[in-house]
Amino acid sequence: xxxxxxxxxxxxxxxxxxxxxxxxxxxxxxxxxxxxxxxxxxxxxxxxxxxxxxxxxxxxxxxxxxxxxxxxxxxxxxxxxxxxxxxxxxxxxxxxxxxxxxxxxxxxxxxxxxxxxxxxxxxxxxxxxxxxxxxxxxxxxx
Length: 142
Prior knowledge:
The chain is built from five helices and no strands. It is mainly alpha-helical. It has one domain.
């Protein structure tokens, strides 16, 4: 989980740097490509958690239900922020506007990741996930 969270944080940093520079980080990619990729990766990560990881944790530890509820609510909030970023990108928003969207996503994402890691890492270690593809549990960056 920590590795996936770090990869998502790195993707956000690359998206921000690309927008700030106004040019691709690599010549083949438009700066907005990084934002689209961040949206897809973060949506995929949260979808996998909601569909696979959280039900497995709930089954093994029903006492953690409130925590899972909080995390699921965060996922919906981040999903809303990502949808707003997508609308801004599709609407031709300026770099400062896009950076404002990234700021909001980063703030919620950072606190969400810390809370999730603090509350779930030990429980995840107890789960029997042998034979389960990490992408199924943690999304496309798993």
